[in-house]
Amino acid sequence: GRALSADILSFGGIVFGSFTGWALVAADYNCRLPADTPPMRVFLLTFFGLFIPICFVQILGAALMTITDPAYILAYADGSTGGLIAQVLSPWGHFGQFVLVLLALSVVANNIPNTYSTGLSIQALGHPFAIIPRFFWVFIAFIAYTVAGVIGREHFNAILSNFLSILSYWTAFFIVIVAEEHFIFRRKNGPLGGYNLDDYDTPSK
To answer: Tens of pLDDT along 46-81?
Structure first.
């Protein structure tokens, strides 16, 4: 019915958002590749670098949600995703606790590139933002998401799901706009005559 269709659409939007959220910042991590790197190689490295880990986590999450053992259901009800993972690792004893700590630290590591991209994105807004050192914007971003995380820790899943749903809508428009500029206006014989890299920091052009 309609409820099922809405759930499928929402879940699809969340999956889409978790992938396409990288569309905005992927170039930040390709800029150090050699200038003569084949475009197809850049695409494949970027695509599979995102596809493999995200699909693995999505499949693992779906598998965990099919568990019907009461202990696992209670662990999820009491501790959300973290509680469920802790329950899954509990048979491993102290080693499972060690793995749980590594997983917690991996969240911090996963936020490092996001925070770095935040600094770059804010500086790209204009010259007044660019003259402020990047570490300042990174520090502001760190404070912002730390405060948000502390405040929303009891409703993490709901907040994350809603955020990814919103992100998927926004990135969909972003991707369309960038694709139109690249394939229509910035093509070699297009209205703008391709890319002039010397004009990247000239607002009038």
So the answer is: 888 888 888 888 888 888 878 888 888 888 877 777
Rounded to whole angstroms, how far apart are CA atoms 20 and 86?
Answer: 29
CA distance 82 to 86: 6
| Distances, alpha carbon 85 to alpha carbons 71, 149, 165, in Å | 12, 19, 24
Q: Is the pTM of this model over 0.85?
A: no
Question: Contact, 89 vs 101, CB < 8 A?
Answer: no
Query: Residue 168, class by beta-carbon neighbours within 10 Å (0-12 exposed, 13-18 middle, 19+ buried)?
Result: buried
User: What whole-number distance in Å separates Cα of residue 159 and Cα of residue 199?
Assistant: 40
Question: What is the distance in angstroms between the CA of the first residue and the CA of the last residue of the chain?
Answer: 51
103-151: per-residue pLDDT in tens? 888 877 777 887 888 888 888 788 888 899 988 999 998 898 888 878 8
3-state class of 28 per DSSP?
helix
Distance CA 151, CA 174 (A): 29
CA distance to 6, 7, 15, 166, per residue, from 2 (Å) = 6, 9, 20, 20
